[in-house]
Write a structure and sequence with these properties.
nucleic acid binding, hydrolase, alpha/beta, nuclease, Nucleotidyltransferase, domain 5
């Protein structure tokens, strides 16, 4: 079983990424360090991939805020190696009231705004949790960051979580770029690609990105 955090609580995550589910438990965040001891330090090597998805209050990496984070590590074959993290970040109510119409609708309907308002994880604490997780499992400056349109997440990390940004390799694996190439070179494969759920919650979006890359690996890269 893999485990991750949501609103300062530890929740269960099945070893199959496609089975990700977030269930609330009344367990304090402080237990994270205890549970993570079950995973050997630096289990991942430089060929491993750090997967991350952020939910934000908008697309301005300077003025908008990170409100939810999901992160896990896979090997080069996309097999999950470590426990995953998933948690909402606390911000003042005013931050959410200033979101644009799309974010206001999406993040309220998904329940994310409510989770953020109830969370006890501040932005500063969120950065430390994420950095501690990376330091525990991967060597510094060796593993690339992966996800869909991950350049945007990287911009937010650079501004809001610089220690996390600095710990990762400077290269990224952007699944959206692979999709655009597939659309141009093998458009017949696009219609069979895994359908995204478009839930705009970090954990589910992360799962969708990994499944999408598996599809391109098994179908696109073998035929181009």
């Amino acid at each position: 079983m893999l485990k991750f955090i949501s609103r300062g609580c530890i929740t269960s995550l099945t070893s199959r990424v496609s089975k990700f589910q977030c269930e609330n438990h009344h367990t304090k965040l402080s237990k994270l360090s205890v549970n993570m001891e079950t995973v050997p330090r630096l289990l991942a090597d430089k060929s491993s991939i750090v997967w991350m998805d952020l939910e934000m209050t908008g697309l301005n990496s300077v003025s908008d805020k990170i409100i939810e984070v999901a992160c896990l590590i896979t090997d080069k074959d996309l097999k999950v190696l470590t426990e995953g993290l998933c948690f909402a970040i606390k911000h003042p109510k005013e931050v959410f009231e200033q979101m644009n119409e799309w974010c206001m609708k999406q993040h309220n309907e998904s329940g994310l705004v409510k989770k953020c308002l109830e969370s006890d994880i501040t932005p500063e604490r969120a950065e430390k949790i994420l950095l501690d997780y990376l330091q525990k499992h991967i060597p510094e400056g060796k593993c690339p960051l992966a996800g869909n349109s991950i350049y945007m997440d990287r911009l937010f990390l650079r501004h809001h979580m610089p220690s996390v940004d600095n710990y990762l390799h400077y290269r990224v694996i952007d699944i959206s770029s692979i999709k655009e190439l597939c659309r141009r070179w093998r458009s017949d494969l696009i219609k069979s690609a895994p359908e995204k759920r478009l839930l705009h919650r970090s954990l589910e979006d992360l799962q969708d990105s990994i499944e999408e890359l598996k599809y391109y690996r098994d179908n696109f890269f073998k035929t181009v």
